[in-house]
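TL;DR need structure tokens for one chain.
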Amino acid sequence: MIDMITDQDVTKLEKIFVTKEELKTSIDRVINYIDYRLEPLEEFKLDFKEFKEQVLKSLNFLVGAYKRLDEERVVAFKQFDNHETRIELLESKSPKKPS
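>> reply
TL;DR here they are.
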């Protein structure tokens, strides 16, 4: 003959094992705790993203300024070289040599 579970057995089992409600409550508490702990990380991530965008904008500006300075340097060097060549040509044609 098969023995049936009594109410007393059920009460003992409830003390030993976790019920669905207790498990759900525990899982919800863990999830809430994890969300609470991760919230500062999310805020940091947003702040860091804004900081990164500002840094990249600044770097783009600096790269553009550097390119303009480099182009100006090339133009100035060409002008200097042109002036140097013209001065040498004029000096070679001049009857009076500089001392």
